Amino acid sequence: MSIFKDLPPAPSAPKRPVTDTRHGIVRTDDYAWLRADNWQAMFKDPSTLDPDIRSYLDAENVYMNAAMADTKELQKTLFAEMKGRIKEDDSSVPVKDGPFAYGTLYVTGGEQPHYFREARDGGERSLMLDGDKEAAGKSYFRLSGIDHSSDHSRGIWGYDNKGSEYFKLKVRDLQTGDDLSDVVENTGGGGVWAPDGKSFFYSALDENHRPSKVLHHIIGTPQSEDRLVYEEEDAGFFMGVGGSLLDDYVFIDIHDHETSEYRILSTKDLMAEPKLVAARETGIEYEISEGGEVFYILTNDGGAKDFKIMEAPVATPEKEHWREVVAHKPGTLILSHMAFARHLLWLERKDGLPQIIIRDRRTGEEHAIGFDEEAYSLGLQGAAEYDTDVIRFSYSSMTTPSQLYDYNMMTRERTLLKTQEVPSGHDPEDYVTRRVFAPGWDGVEVPITLLYRKNTVLDGSAPCLLYGYGAYGIAIPAGFNTNSLSLADRGFVYAIAHIRGGKDKGFSWYDDGKMGKKTNTFKDFIAAADYLNQQKFTSYANIIAEGGSAGGMLMGAVANMAPEKFAGVIAAVPFVDVLNTMLDDTLPLTPPEWPEWGNPIDSREDYDHIASYSPYDNVGEKPYPPILALGGLTDPRVTYWEPAKWVAKLRDKTTGDAPILLKTNMDAGHGGASGRFQRLEEIAFEYSFAIKVAGKM
């Protein structure tokens, strides 16, 4: 392509065919050698990576840098713009809990959060944890936060310095600022304090990076002596451990993508066996929130596809004692719930938009916190204390910076605590945000959220970044994103396609985009591109598609299905080798992911369906648009070899001359760079690719 001139020869990965036979079907994978045999060890020590693999990834990075060399100044400009929209010395509004209020802050030039506390009603701040100090000298460093004990004397904090998401936990004395001798390794990143502050519970990851055990650690003892509280033997289930606002219970949450099970441990008897609430039943999900003498249970049991809320006595929480308190309303999806001393509240989504509903537990009276914009995002933060009438929530839209409110559930008074500052300036009146609907292939309406400058000419000439995800029931919020302004200010239409596979239009929207209906996700995204082209918001020649992780699978699928409808594709940590990954039950996420994609090991039908769309398996001899794939060497979620194999095959098969680029971050995992400004550098790089492909440099 003319926009990519004088490139050196692209790397050519050698073919080393490996055959695999399943259900009588023989497949050959020419690039299977890029999967490190010692991946478990490599995630913990990247220096053990096979030299041949490292050499190939390095060569791809060299080629990518050559292709993007002319964007260096643009990247710097974009980075400066994005950084200029962030208040460097920012601070959260502290959250009250007992005698203190806890918060986070950033310092000018800092990459990592600092955690502080102050007296409940204000006063001098005391620094509990300096993230920049802890990260010093490390190429990657990610904090999992700090959780204080009930008596406010100690804090558990965790970090990952490889990007592999194996977190170490340490215990800090909050009076002196010193860490105790306790070091707990190979954890999921957090812990739950016992009320006396002398011990905590945590989840431990096994050698395949799965949280298989909940352990009880007593301060001052070695990790080897930690008591096993519960072990999950089914590799198909995730597991986490959490606590209640009243510190009465420890919750063990066991789930996959369609089935839940809770076990609870009373903190009055830390040595007891956890009590089963309701045994797992395939397809039945539930979540528990404590409400004093009762548990409130959010569940889809009994055909409540969009969920309902039940209650049960804490002494007898088994399913036979559940009683309905919030009925199921088809089309109104209850997303989450919280309980406080006098109120029950929940976040629901109807017609694609969220709202917060509050019920007085004594009178049953309900009211909603409502908003007027056409498309917006809500975040329900609740409170750190149980006996309160004041909760906290956040609000934003594509044009409105994030606003943080305290809300009195009794008086219904909103108090604006903070509005996101944009130091370089932002006038919402300069921009337009819209919610439009694209007709899907089967008659459904696919929502699309748009952001563009008011003076953007909508005659088909505007470039467009079309973003999509569409998996796991995750809805993409129409929230404020300072980074996207850099595209809008250059004449781009920034579009989010709320495609099936998410819960943007209720649970059925998710159900229609998973398992055997997965291709609806891809068709919806193409329908969004068709609509934007037909309505002249943009044109096929100007659409750059973007998605990451499962959204990267989407990118691979639409590139195979309709390459002519996209000017370029950005696929971040893309899950593109779906069939091989779902056939490899040693990988961290494979067994828990079978309810989302299907189990091709046991089911020929699932095998055939995944094989029909798996991007890597369906690369064909056709002219692909320019593609940028990004991976992380220590990524345990989408392993580095997925984008590496995909790029190698694309480059071998494409009949066009558009470059296929691979950028592998050799010092990071799934989330990319760990610092807040380091992450902006990566976004600036991705956007520079989009701007270059759009011919807007």
TrEMBL record:
SUPFAM superfamilies per the UniProt record, alphabetical: alpha/beta-Hydrolases (SSF53474), Peptidase/esterase 'gauge' domain (SSF50993)
Residues annotated as domain Peptidase S9A N-terminal: 15-419
Source taxon at top rank: Bacteria
Pfam families on file: Peptidase_S9, Peptidase_S9_N
Residue span of region Disordered: 1-21
InterPro entries registered for this protein in UniProt: AB_hydrolase_fold (IPR029058), Pept_S9_AS (IPR002471), Pept_S9A_N (IPR023302), Peptidase_S9_cat (IPR001375), Peptidase_S9A (IPR002470), Serine_Peptidase_S9A (IPR051543)
GO BP annotations, alphabetical order: proteolysis
UniProt keyword Protein transport present: no
GO MF annotation: an example: serine-type endopeptidase activity
Keywords, sorted A to Z: Hydrolase, Protease, Serine protease
Residue ranges constituting the Peptidase S9 prolyl oligopeptidase catalytic domain according to the UniProt record: 480-695
Family affiliation: Belongs to the peptidase S9A family.
Record protein name field: S9 family peptidase
Natural source organism: Rhizobium tubonense
